Amino acid sequence: MLPVTRFLKAANVRLSLAGGRLDRLDPERDPETERRRLKAEVVEELIDLFMTVDSSTDPAVPRPHIANRSKFAQDFRFRESQGSTALEKGLAVPHVRSAQARQITLVMARSPEGVWYDAPDGQATRLFFGISAPPWEKEWYLPFWQWISQTFRSHADWLPEALLSAQTADEMIRLLAGLE
After folding, report:
1. Which of 17, 99, 100, 145 has its CA 20 to 30 A from that of 156?
2. DSSP code at position 157
């Protein structure tokens, strides 16, 4: 069992993304350019979320979690340019190894309306589980990614809707804790 909720705290959850919403597509502009713009909005919000990570639960970890925002953002954008981290059925697992990350960190965000994130099924993405880690982190990075994808596959009939209808970040984390 992975201790997902040891790393994912309520302070690291964004209940509603502001950017990337499909209803903001400008019909007067090139659709592909507009989709890239919407995804870039979401990427910036996720980077900001990683920047606000609360590492206070581990006094051995220096603050802030990210040493240099500009360099971390460059690493995050580069990783996403290599291939979308969106999966199918409204889930994305943006993940990056960066020398700017001081420890492994999980964040979660949602968009009940759905945002454009270049999913392979062409559908809107509504749930994001972000993972950042330093390049040398070997213990949790891949197991977390695998846990997220397997858990969503195994519980696709109820988990996404339960997370989307949760009223608080604590409620979302309790749902995940029950699956650890």
Report:
1. 17
2. T
Handedness of CA 11, 42, 177, 169 (dihedral sign): positive
- Residue 125 phi/psi, 5-degree rounding, is -100, 135
Question: For residue 95, how many other CB atoms are within 10 A of its CB?
Answer: 20
Q: Which domains does the chain have, with CATH numbers?
A: 4-177 (3.40.930.10)
Q: pTM of the predicted model, to two decimals?
A: 0.89
pLDDT of residue 109 exceeding 70: yes
> By CB neighbour count within 10 A (0-12 exposed, 13-18 middle, 19+ buried), where does 165 fall?
exposed
* CA nearest to 41, candidates 64, 27, 13, 22: 22
Contacts for 3 with CB less than 8 Å, ≥ 6 apart? 180
